[in-house]
Design brief:
alpha+beta; 2 domains; 4-stranded antiparallel sheet; 4 helices; 4 strands; 48% helix
Length: 171
């Protein structure tokens, strides 16, 4: 079903910047609360009063499956969706930032721990301080892991780019 077919079943239809609005058939609507938009594979609906898609379709004598347009190709011949290309450099940068953040925080905690006077702490405070310092050492290990992942991503990106740029050698 197309959006035009669906709109013919509604009342109070108005064009909006993102599609259309109309009176929702699933509840007594006085002001248009149903948003309608044409999607890639069918009609998209949203009732701002809270009605579900199933309730809206039932009020119009439709089923949810009627909102989808039929694909011109049979199910087995449809092209498989391509996964989005991963930007390895951007991902490596994010891993580096996460590692740097962990490392800086952990180092600050460890340095503060070196300045503690153990004799002035009670047992609970000492346990808490030691737990935080132990967590800081684990965070440094995690930071090293993040940095390794970032290096691996950059290496893969470099290898991929150089293999595309360099013509294959004829033997």
């Amino acid at each position: 079903m197309t959006a035009a077919d669906f709109l013919q079943r509604l009342q109070g239809v108005r064009q909006t910047a993102r599609g259309w609005s109309a009176l929702c058939p699933a509840h007594p609507d006085k002001t248009p609360s149903l948003a309608i938009k044409e999607g890639e594979r069918g009609v998209l609906l949203r009732c701002w009063a809270g009605c579900t898609v199933e309730e809206i379709c039932a009020a119009l004598g439709l089923e949810v499956k009627d909102l989808f347009s039929d694909s011109p190709l049979p199910r087995g011949q449809r092209p498989a969706p391509k996964p989005p290309k991963v930007d390895r450099r951007a991902m490596a940068f994010r891993f580096d930032l996460a590692g740097l953040d962990l490392r800086l925080r952990a180092n600050r905690i460890i340095e503060a721990g070196k300045l503690l006077t153990v004799a002035t702490l009670n047992e609970a405070e000492l346990d808490q301080a030691l737990d935080l310092i132990a967590q800081s050492y684990r965070d440094i290990e995690r930071a090293e892991l993040f940095e390794h992942v970032a290096d691996t991503l950059r290496e893969r990106d470099f290898n991929e780019r150089t293999s595309r740029e360099r013509p294959a050698c004829a033997a």
